[in-house]
TrEMBL record:
It comes from Abeliophyllum distichum. PANTHER family: EXOSTOSIN HEPARAN SULFATE GLYCOSYLTRANSFERASE -RELATED, XYLOGLUCAN GALACTOSYLTRANSFERASE XLT2-LIKE. This is Glycosyltransferase 18. The chain crosses the membrane at residues 31-52. Keywords: Glycosyltransferase, Golgi apparatus, Membrane, Signal-anchor, Transferase, Transmembrane, Transmembrane helix. Its main location: Golgi. One of its GO terms (molecular function) is glycosyltransferase activity. The keyword Membrane applies. One of its GO terms (cellular component) is Golgi membrane. Belongs to the glycosyltransferase 47 family.
Amino acid sequence: MVEHSSSESQSLKKSKNIWLKNTLNSVKVSLYRCLWLSIILLFQIVVLNFVLCAPSKSISINTQILQETVMPLPSLQSNQCQSGMVYVYDLPVMYNKELIDNCHDLDPWHSRCKAVSNDGLGPITAGLSDGMPENLAPAWYWTDMFSGEIIYHARILKHKCRTTEPELATAFYIPFYAGVAVAKYLFTNYTAKERDWHSEMLLKWLQDQPYWKRANGSDHFIMLGRMTWDFRRSNDEDWGSSFIHMPLMKQILRLCVERNPWDHLEISVPYPTGFHPKSKSDLDQWLNFVQTRKRRSLFTFVGAKRKVKSDFRSILLSHCYNESESCRVVDCAGTRCYDGTWEILEAFLDSEFLFTA
Ligand SMILES: *[C@@H]1O[C@H](CO)[C@@H](O)[C@H](O)[C@H]1NC(C)=O
Ligand SMILES: *[C@@H]1O[C@H](CO)[C@@H](O)[C@H](O)[C@H]1NC(C)=O
Ligand SMILES: *[C@@H]1O[C@H](CO)[C@@H](O)[C@H](O)[C@H]1NC(C)=O
C-alpha cells in the first residue's frame, strides 16, 4: 500500500492538471480507507464460507451416498450445478497470458512478476513462520490486492460447474485481465486511445463469437480486479479507461472489487487476502490461534504519512503516537510495508482494533 502511495504522489507531482490531482487524491484516500475494511470483510466472508460450506459438504456427501442408492448418477450431477454450467472463453493470449508473461512491464515503476505469480496468489511468505503455527505458514502468500482477476480465472477453470462445451453453458466467463492491462496506463500521461486499446480489441473480438450473438452477450460476465472507477472515464483527459462505458459492456455482468452502487450490472466481490487455507483444518487452526491470542494494545495504526494537504493519515498517526499507552504504531515511512513482514501481521494479531486509512 505504501509503495503505491509513494509512487502515486510521485506521479501526481508530475501532473499539471490540478483538478485531476484533487479528484485522484480524494478518490484514493477514500479507496484506501476502504481497503482494510474490505480485507477484514473478506476474511469474515472466507470464514463464513467455510463455516457454511463445511457442514453442507458433509451433508452433500451423505446425500450423495443416499442418492447413489436410489438415483442414477446424471441427475445427481445436474443437481450439483442447479444454476447451470459456465463456459470459460479461450481468449487470444494478449488478453491474459501475455500480460502475465510481460509482468516486468505492467507498472511504470516496479516489476509485477511476483504479484502475478502463482496463479495470482503471489509468492509464498517467508519469515512469517516465526510467530504462527508452523504448518499454517504455507497458507500465507504475499497476495497482491489487484490480482483478483487472475485468481478468479485459475479457480473457475477447476470449478465443478465449468463446461468445455459452449452449447451446454448457461453463462460465459470472459477471462480478460482488464485491471492488469490498464494498470500501467493509469498513472502516466498515456493517451485515451492507449488506455482503451485492450478493451476495444477485446470487445471487437467478442462480438464476432457465435455464443455472444446467441443472447447478445447478456449471459456473459467478467471479473474486474481493480475498482470500477478505473474503467469509467467519460472525457479523454480524465482518469482511467472507458471500458465500462463501451456499448457492449451494457450487456455484460461484472464482478468487481469496488462496484458502482448505482449500476445493477455490477456485483461486489472482496479484495483478495493473503490467507489461502488448503483445508478446513487450516482454517480452524488459524481461528483458534487468532481467538486465543492475547491482545496487548487497544488500537493499532499501520501506515505512513502522505504528502498531500490535510492528510488524514498524518492526523491519525499523530493521535496514535500521543496515546502510546493504548495505541501501537507501525510506521511504514521508509520501510516497504507493502512487502509485509511478520511485524505487521503481529501488530494486527496483538490489537483489539485497527485504524484504517
Ligand atoms: C508525457 O508528457 C511529456 C510532456 O508532454 C512527454 O515528454 C512524455 O513523453 C509523455 N509521456 C508519455 C508516456 O506519453
Ligand atoms: C444488443 O446489445 C446492444 C448493446 O447494448 C444494443 O445496442 C442492441 O440493440 C442489442 N441488440 C439486440 C438484438 O437486442
Ligand atoms: C500530539 O501531541 C503534540 C505535542 O503535545 C501536539 O502538538 C499534537 O497536536 C498532538 N496531536 C494530536 C492529533 O492531538
